[in-house]
Amino acid sequence: MTKILIVEDEPIVAEAVSQFLHHAGYQVVGIAKDEGSALWQAATVRPDLVLMDIRLAGSSDGIETARKMQSAGPVNVVFVTAHQDSETRSRADAVHPAGFVAKPFSCQQLLEAVTAVEKLRRS
């Protein structure tokens, strides 16, 4: 079963995504709202996939958090964000994410991104 860490600073969004993924058969191993919590949880539970918002609570953003996670070992990151401007996208592309999901998103779009990462892991 794919273990997923959700990094999202909006509690309602994080909980909705968690519930949807759980009902779709995935194991949500944690929810983090800031960089410190995300890095600690990633090191502790070793998720197969991190769904990472780009704007997080605190001073660091999701791109920098993903970079720090990857420096500790390989991790699949899918950015889930409303911020799609060229500068943000360029910074995000530099950490080689497994995908992007634009907010607002449908459950189907989220499921497609998670499924795509599963296929990458198995190949």
Write a brief caption for the model:
The protein has 123 residues and is an alpha/beta fold.
What features would you highlight for this structure?
5 strands, single chain, 123 residues, 20% strand, Rossmann fold, alpha/beta, five-stranded parallel sheet, 5 helices
Question: Strands of the biggest beta sheet: in what spatial order?
Answer: 2-1-3-4-5
Our estimate of the beta-strand percent is: 15-25%
Largest sheet descriptor: 5 strands, parallel
The top level CATH class name: Alpha Beta
What is the 3D form?
globular
Our count of domains comes out at 1
The chain-level mean pLDDT equals 94
Which structural class matches the secondary elements? Answer: alpha/beta
Query: Mind telling me the CATH superfamily name?
Result: Response regulator
Low-confidence stretches: none
Radius of gyration, CA atoms, in whole angstroms: 13 Å
The CATH topology:
Rossmann fold
Number of beta-strand segments: 5
What level of helicity do the residues show? 40-55%
* Helical stretch tally: 5
The helix/strand order is: EHEHEHEHEH
Overall CATH architecture = 3-Layer(aba) Sandwich
* Cα separation of the termini: 16 Å
Task: Give a verbal description of the structure.
The protein is of the alpha/beta class and 123 residues long. The protein has one domain (3-83, 95-122): Response regulator (Rossmann fold, 3-Layer(aba) Sandwich). Helices cover 47% and strands 20% of the residues. It has five helices and five strands. It has helices at 11-23, 35-45, 62-71, 86-93, 107-122, and strands at residues 3-7, 27-32, 49-52, 76-81, 99-102. It is globular, with a radius of gyration of 13 Å.
